[in-house]
Structures are given as C-alpha cells and as structure tokens.
Amino acid sequence: MSEQAVVGVLGAGRAGTAFARVMLRVGIDVDLCSTRPPRALQHHLKIYAPGALAVWPEQVGVRTAQQGSGIVILAVPQEELDEVDPEWLNIPGTESLILVDATNTWHDEELPSWLQAAIDEQLPSSYGIAGRFGRTRVVKALNHISHHDIESFANPDLPLDQRRAVALAGDDADARGHVMSLLAQMGFDPVSLGGLAAGQPIEPGGPLFDRPLRREEILRFAR
C-alpha cells in the first residue's frame, strides 16, 4: 500500500481517533467523519487526531477509493450503526471497498435489529456487518486491542516477531492481505485467523480479546 494512500475512518470517538493517530505517525493520510459536520469536527480532531482531515460521511468512501488504499475502518458503536448508510461505501466504477470491522458487541447495548438477528443465531457479529454492508469486503480487525493500548503497542521500528500480534479474519483473501499490510505499516504483527467465522476468538469474552499476544498464541486459533 502506498504510504500516501488515504484510509477512511467512520467514527471519531476514542477508538477512531486512536487508529487515526497511529496511522498518521507512520505517514498514512486519514479521513475522519462522524455525525457532526466537518467544520464542527475540525476542532475535535485538532485535539485528538491532529493531521486527520474531517470529511462528510458521504466523502469517506469516495476519497479512499480515489486515493488508492480502498480501506475504511468502521469505528462506530454498534448501537449507532443504523446511522451509517451502506451507500456511503458503494462507489460505482471502482473495486469494492474493504471495510475493517473494528466494532464489538456489548451486552448493555440495544443493537439494530439486523445485527441482533445475526447474534441471536450465534453468528459472529461481523456476519451481520457483512450482510448490512454487502457491497464491501469485510475484515474483522482492530477490535480486540483497547484504544488505550493501541498507540503504546504500535511500534513499526521493531522487527515483526517482537511486535504485539493482532488477529484478523475475513472471507476475501485479497482484502485480508491489504489489511495485513496496513496493520504491519501501523506497527503490529498481523496474523490471519481465516474467514469471518474464525473471528469469534477476538470478540468480547473470546480467548484472544484484550490480551497482549504473540503470533504463536493467535495461530492456535487459525482455521
């Protein structure tokens, strides 16, 4: 992935801005959007993600498709996902975008009915995300490391085998490869678990959730 490629982030909360800060410090341009108009979001980003560009939600997919990374990180609380229009990520005339699902399901949240239906069937929550955003290639990643830890553990100066390992899962092998490249550039050691069904260990309550991990610990759960 080009060092100047734009990565979009849907959600400007604690997780979204933490992802942005890590990417910005390794030279990746970041577009951030939220429910606030860009002008209102600019001051927030000057404090929490200086260097990120505030854009309209309708722009986030277009710009990353045009600039070459084709990656958008979904960092919106799951109870607010009905506010995210799937059409924002449907860019005619381009390859389908990669949507990194960095969201988690918490028991105290009232979820959208389409997402709750997937969870009621005991499916990984990313199945619901993939169904909702069906014109994207969904990869589950960045959800199992706390936003408090993401900056302190991301270290691109270390050899891969000395970095914190992070897991990802997705049905599209090419999309997984692009996300692995992004995670490595950010300063992690990315490890593929396999398809979306293999992502359950990195969900809340799973054996890989919110733990400092090495590659061999993740590989035990790979399919």
UniProtKB/TrEMBL annotation:
Origin: domain of life: Bacteria
Could you tell me which Gene3D superfamilies the record lists for this protein? Answer: NAD(P)-binding Rossmann-like Domain (3.40.50.720)
Instruction: Write out the GO MF terms.
Output: oxidoreductase activity
A Pfam match: F420_oxidored
Q: Which UniProt keywords apply?
A: Oxidoreductase
| Entry keyword annotation includes Oxidoreductase | yes
Say if the entry is tagged with keyword Ligase. no
**Domain Pyrroline-5-carboxylate reductase catalytic N-terminal intervals:** 7-104
Q: Where are the transmembrane segments?
A: none
Q: From the Swiss-Prot or TrEMBL record, give the protein name.
A: Pyrroline-5-carboxylate reductase catalytic N-terminal domain-containing protein
What is the originating organism of this protein? Nesterenkonia natronophila
